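How it folds:
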Amino acid sequence: MRFNDKLKLVPELPGVYQMINDKDAVIYVGKARSLRNRLRSYFQAGAGHNAKVRAMVEKVADFEYIITDTEREALVLESNLIKELRPHYNIRIKDDKHYPYLRLSVHEVYPRLSIVRRVEKDKARYFGPYPNAGAVRDLLKLLKRVFPLHACSREFSNGKSVGRPCLNYHLKQCLGPCTGEVTEVDYRTVVRSVELLLEGKHDALLKSLREQMEVASDALDFERAAVVRDQVRAVENVVERQKFDAAKHLERDVVGMARSLEEACVVIFHMREGKVVGRETVFLTGTAEQNRDEVFSAFLVQFYTYAPYLPKEILLDEEPAEREEIEHILSAKLGSRVSVQVPQRGAKKAITDLASRNALQVLEERYARISGKQELAKRGLTELAFYLGLATPPQRIECYDISNIQGTLAVGSMVVFVDGLPAKEEYRRFRIKWVEGANDFAMLHEVLTRRLAAYKESNPKFLSLPDLLIIDGGKGQLSAASSALAQEEMVHLAVVSLAKADELIFVPGRVAPVDLPRDSQARYLVQRIRDEAHRFAITYHRQLRKKAQVASLLEDCPGIGPARRQALLKAFGSMTALKQATLDEVKAIKGMNEALARRLHDYLRGKA
């Protein structure tokens, strides 16, 4: 076993591990309850890893680990390392937008406040990120009026003038350290007030300001006391507005997700006062072989750990992995309870479903913009091959459906998709000939054997064989299809069935059905193919039913025998068209004369 000696030294403690390739790059970060057990599982001979893990393990040249006290600490550390290192094999947020931050240069003698887009390791303090750039600019303007820190890049000597003051000083939006009129101690007092406000420590800030106001008042420095009084009022207004908004309605985020084989799209609805006030879209990579609950878990930790605002309630359409741990982490960050819920009914369920549909729409539009329908279809075929274990994506797919009413007028449909798109010129339909009564399994068997026999006979309408057959139905239909393939010596053809109730795919030789991710392109593709086969069968069945109804009605008309009925049906196609026909049009049909035409005309109008 690889790394056997090193693995013996790994403790059975919780922690985070890093997989490193031969170029000393971290390619995967993971967490574990027991580092030893988890790491040993990667390198055991015959371990049943999925394709993604096998590919990762083959590239591992070394590993490192960090011990933590609890699994919860490991979860947080894992998220931080993924955010910083962005390992290739981890689930990670793809489009990490550079939201604005407020930067306070506390390492400088006279700190200044500015808006930046990136966080640097420069000893400054960063607040944010803020998703609304306009809002952060407004906040900066407010701070400059209430706590007028300087904004220029001059270097100042304590207590000494270094030149003429700028316009901000004259507008009272700068304390003017360049004039030498403010000491470093006084300036630092204002800086501390800014820090407290940005940290959300309003009570401590107000207490400090009121103490300063009293000191200035006792010293008869009424001008200074008035300035501090205005600062107190400004902060109180901010606090009151926040309290009022919070009291209106519980603030929540609604999260929906859609997935393709290569990535996942997450849509976040920001709800305030019971209304959706904003939508945010995030893409995640490295999700191909992860369960939905794992993807949700990775998203929640990565996104909300760095989000500028954390709501008290987060709604999902599916239970995330380690939900309680995630709630604890987010609650600790917010300083109050954060609830992660999966609603099952009612308005909350409806809004989570809506978020998921939006995510699917965004994903489809994203792919449509890339390369249009063909690219979208190609992705669906690639995913379908992956989930069904096919060697290559199926180029030609045929889907079969049966339509009948209690065994009468039974028909079968065959629709064809080539490269994931409908090839309507290849569609075929069958009238059931050999089966009597309501037996869908036998009817399906008949349709497939007739189709395959036509191929063997080089029938020009059936010259190509499919790479995949999809049968509309469950295990019974799949068994009937497999029997037909065996009878026609075509067992090498891939065949599956798609059940309507739960959208499960049954595959020969597999005990458990394949449950395609409900928002994957593969699922969308097979649903579309199945629905098209059903539509084609129903349409043909309705046509036959209408003709049968017309024929039945015509049978009761004196003088209209089988030959004339057939001629009339062929000419007009429907009872409505026949009723609307003129005497001359009816008389022109083969086998009809003026007397018969008039008799039929009067009969159909209830005059006979």
